[in-house]
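Chapter review: from sequence to fold.
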Amino acid sequence: MPRIIWVLAATAFVALAACNPGGLNRPDGLFAPGVTGRGEIDHLAAGHRAMEGGEYEVALKSFTRAAAQQGLNAEILAALGSANLALGRLGQAEDLLRRALEEDPEYPEAWNNLGVILMEQGHVAEATFVFRRAYATDNGDSDQIRDNLRLALAMLDQTSYSPQQGTAEFQLMRRGYGDFVLSPVP
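The token string follows.
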């Protein structure tokens, strides 16, 4: 008797799948986000979604899986760097972003995030140079990069420093998939 139940269940499943246009394999390309047309998971897209959701460890794991699938190209190196930046691992993030820029020197998001790291480390002059490079490679289209450049230039222009003033405090604000903006802490 149990064998009949399994046969009926399997028949019902196949019949229901046949009711859906395209059956189990939809030709119209509609798949769950993060899944390629071949049914494989797109780990890079999954990592970007995890970054949007503030799940930086999950994003880092997804980007690592994407590196295993696709190799370490500039996009994946920059994504790994952005995830490490979000986790506060500035040294690792800096190394990864510099490697991404060696692969693709025309990657404005990587330049921007490298500038954010340099500002966090107090290297204002180098950060200003990096933000200028990011702004130039982006053709001035990004408001975030422009705002970061303005902040770095303002910090560079502050020539008088007294120990009583202290240093400016920054807060990282994430925008987009892996772009970060510096803003002064109120």
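Two observations follow directly from the output. The domain at 12-158+168-184 is CATH 1.25.40.10 (Serine Threonine Protein Phosphatase 5, Tetratricopeptide repeat). The CA atoms of residues 29 and 37 lie 6 Å apart.
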